[in-house]
Amino acid sequence: MYAERVLSGMRPTGALHLGHYHGVLKNWVKLQHEYPCLFFVADWHALTTHYDNPQGIEQATWDMVIDWLAAGVDPNQATLFIQSRVPEHAELHLLMSMMTPLGWLERVPTYKDQQEKLDSKDLSTYGFLGYPLLMSADILIYRADKVPVGEDQLPHVEFTRELARRFNHMYGREPGFEDKAREAVKKLGSKKARLYEELRTRFQQNGDKEAIAQAHAMLDEIQHLSVGDRERLFGYLEGTGKMILAEPSALLTEASKMPGLDGHKMSKSYNNTITLRESAESVTKKVRSMPTDPARARRTDPGEPAKCPVWQLHLVYSNDACKEWVQHGCRTAGIGCIECKQPVIDGILREQAPMRERAQIYLDDLTLVKNIIADGCEKARELARETMRDVRESMGLEYH
Ligand code: TRP
Ligand code: SF4
Beta-carbon neighbour count of residue 275 at 10 Å? Predict the structure, then answer.
């Protein structure tokens, strides 16, 4: 019923690597052409685990935004912002905390898992327990209906759906709904208002579903309606109350198959990464020191690409002719490993070149980044404010 809207966030954990690029960022770049997108830095979420050491968060935030821009996320297409700069997230989080059963939070599977995994840290905090609730606020405050996330975050999106349902059930009938709906009908202008009333009557008296479809089509075409009025008009049509918060759905991001330097999945915790903007020297050095098929102890020993992590990178970066050259050359000891690694190095550098170029513009002038974020925060805030007005009102908090 709402305009389709994509929202996703990332915790600022420092420089992003090629795994993030192939997994998440390429997907964002694609989505930004297909939907209105909101992408944000979840800096408060970083605090849930780094509350004892928050100093790095600021730098990590700017680095990450530059990485997004470098990867091709386009601030003219997508709205980029920082969570903590839209304090409405915190207000929604607080208000929802009043009606969130403790058991729902305790049962989110990531809760105990992460607590155990990060057992060097005391995570029996209020904030950490509330991680999924804060994430729900991030999503619901934009009435986002599509949330691209990795598999690990699916339970959080499911939690968000349940919470939205509970909220709507509890507060969904805003006081004075009928009056407001009638006001909204007037705003359609006399001709459309008459048609709307007619279709509404057809549905309510005869159960005519075709009339509903026709009314939806008409409302979809009207641009100037506020989100609140639009929802009221949809609700009034069928005689139901207003859905204050929209149930989102997850857009599962396929896990990145990007191999790291050791053949395992690229991940910061495996220490096998190449960052998006890693220097050419460092890329060269890292690839040159990658382990290869141990059978090739000497240059003259033949090897098997399937047993070599370098081959995994050829699968990402090399064309068929090059892959053929590797297969044959490796198995016949026709080529050496240093030789074999060069096209991989070239491929990575080729991929990074436009990223490094784009990043340089922002590194030279950080105010560009700050302006992009300031703009994005302003846009995001407008949307958030609109939802919060409805939320406050539905909870009886709009005192005048
Ligand atoms: N929890 C997400 C992660 O770790 C980050 C995040 C915070 C997020 N808020 C969000 C993702 C809202 C999507 C929507 O990856
Ligand atoms: Fe690996 Fe290439 Fe050496 Fe074969 S020739 S072991 S594929 S680096």
Answer: 19
pTM: 0.84
CATH number at residue 290: 1.10.240.10
What is the percent of the chain where pLDDT is above 70?
A: 98
Is residue 270 assigned to a domain?
Answer: no
Same structural domain, 63 and 142:
yes
Shortest-distance atom of ligand 2 to CA 309 = 1
Other C-beta atoms closer than 10 Å to the C-beta of 104 total 14
Same domain assignment for residues 137 and 27:
yes
Is 140 within 8 Å of 387 (Cβ atoms)?
yes
| Contact 310 CB / ligand 2 (< 6 Å) | yes
Is the minimum distance from the CB of 340 to ligand 2 under 6 angstroms? yes
pLDDT at 287: 98
The pLDDT value given to residue 114: 86
Q: 285: domain range?
A: 278-363
CATH number (domain holding residue 96): 3.40.50.620
- Ligand 1: residue whose CA is nearest its atom 13: 8
Measured from the alpha carbon of residue 290, the closest ligand is: 2
Task: Encode pLDDT of 361-384 as tens digits.
Answer: 999 999 999 999 999 999 999 999
Q: Answer yes or no: is the C-beta of 390 below 6 A from any ligand 1 atom.
A: no
Measured on CA atoms in the order 193, 199, 203, 209, is the torsion positive or negative?
Answer: negative
pLDDT digits (tens, 9 = 90+) for 41-89: 999 999 999 999 999 999 999 999 999 999 999 999 999 999 999 999 9
Structure tokens at 369: 């980044």
Burial of 160 (0-12, 13-18, 19+ CB in 10 A): buried
The verdict on the CB of residue 212 being under 6 Å from ligand 2 is no
User: Is 244 a member of any domain?
Assistant: no
| Phi/psi-derived region of residue 235, left when phi > 0, alpha when psi is between -120 and 50, beta in every other case | alpha
| 12 and 150 housed in the same domain | yes
Question: How many Cβ atoms are within 10 Å of 210's Cβ, its own excluded?
Answer: 11
What is the pLDDT at residue 1?
Answer: 43
- Residue with CA closest to ligand 1 atom 14: 8
In a domain, 165, yes or no: yes
